[in-house]
From TrEMBL:
One of its GO terms (cellular component) is cytoplasm. Keywords: Cell cycle, Cell division, Cell shape, Cell wall biogenesis/degradation, Cytoplasm, Peptidoglycan synthesis, Transferase. This is UDP-N-acetylglucosamine 1-carboxyvinyltransferase. UDP-N-acetyl-alpha-D-glucosamine binds at residues 92, 121-125, 307, 329. Its main location: cytoplasm.
Amino acid sequence: MNKLIVKGGHRLSGEITIGGAKNSTVALIPAAILADTPVRFDSVPDILDVHNLMVILESMNVKSDFTGDVLTIDPTNIEEGPLPSKAIKSLRASYYFMGALLGRFHRAVVTFPGGDNIGPRPIDQHIKAFRALGAEVTEKDGTVTMKTGEDGLHGAQIFMDMVSVGATINAILAAVKAPGTTTIGNAAKEPEIIDIATFLNNMGANIRGAGTDVIRIEGVDKLVAQNTHTIIPDRIEAGTYLSLAAAVGDGIRINNIIPEHLESFTAKLEEMGCDLTIYEDSAFVGPSKDLKPVSVKVMPFPGFATDLQQPITPLLFKATGRSTIIDTIYPQRVKHIAELQRMGARIYSEDIEEGLIVVDPSTNLHGAVVEAGEIRAGAALVITGLMAEGTTEIRQADNILRGYGSIIDKLRAIGADVSLAAEEPKF
Ligand SMILES: CC(=O)N[C@H]1[C@@H](OP(=O)(O)OP(=O)(O)OC[C@H]2O[C@@H](n3ccc(=O)[nH]c3=O)[C@H](O)[C@@H]2O)O[C@H](CO)[C@@H](O)[C@@H]1O
Ligand SMILES: C=C(OP(=O)(O)O)C(=O)O
């Protein structure tokens, strides 16, 4: 584990360029094993999740190479075998190997995924989709085993009980080569789902409706890569740096964004009175003054993303009154609160059942030793550390490195005093 050290209290300025979306990348890599040819991605973020997925690919004899921001994957000599449980447990998205292996081999044995500790994260909807497509699924001791009869998978009508990004993508991965028509109702509409469908369709898949709540798939026999797939920019990384820029910036430009993916977030910054100018694929944030408090309610896309409720929090400390946040997707996503309190922040979990968090103006922030219990809690600590006087030592920083590519270089480029160091082992 690494710790991230932030020396705060300085104003920052300059430019930051956003990388490819973590939540696309971590689905695209498992999706690659469905291809009948090598595949190539660019704009790949250099994050721990990618390196762990490459370890999982290696265990299946799938060769991959990550140079610069280009990742090539050759699944043509793929072999079935036990997957490395440490790597599987290191990230949430390893569950995409369930859908991808099922689509490829009509059977799979995968241990339960890890990922951020943000409250209960069941996978019942994923399993419901696999069953509808013809798989027999059993769960025992944290392992999911799936197999089909001789006829393999078949198209099916699936209606999700709740909007789930992971279950929608997993259903697509399992169905893309399943003969017949699959319909996914109440599908998630996140931009990352469109990105996966675009990648698969460019290889010959027939997926319609991605980005709406009904997705229709006609199964195809072959998936043949003809070109490089460029991963969409990470809207969560972008939102994090926009919040940082409004909180401690003296003029920061954020490059490589798709503004339409960020509307619920930028609308909140505008409501607060941030100095924000949005261009075709970038945004400029000027220094903030007299920020208004706001109410944030997390919703599935296009609503305000749960992954941005913690990164916007430090900005709320600068508002002139009480702000509220309700996380309807992960009400227990509160790992940042106790840590921020250690830094002098006035933030409270008012109702853990409802996911209600109250944020009061906090002007006396100071450095402290804190823990990044999960990726976005870590992002909130980094921003608060930059705002605070003194030094903040953020332990368990690997949780941040799971999803923020080149974060040290990006922050140093705008003048931040940040570094990474190995964390001393706990006894
Ligand atoms: C790798 C990835 O893309 N991660 C994102 C994905 O996670 P993930 O795909 O795991 O999140 P989901 O969209 O599935 O979860 C949404 C809600 O549905 C519930 N649920 C989900 C599946 C299921 O089978 N049963 C069930 O009850 C969850 O507990 C949660 O309350 O979407 C989340 C919600 O936008 C984001 O925070 C994560 O960053
Ligand atoms: C919750 C997140 O990630 P994961 O689903 O990969 O744990 C996140 O990116 O905020």
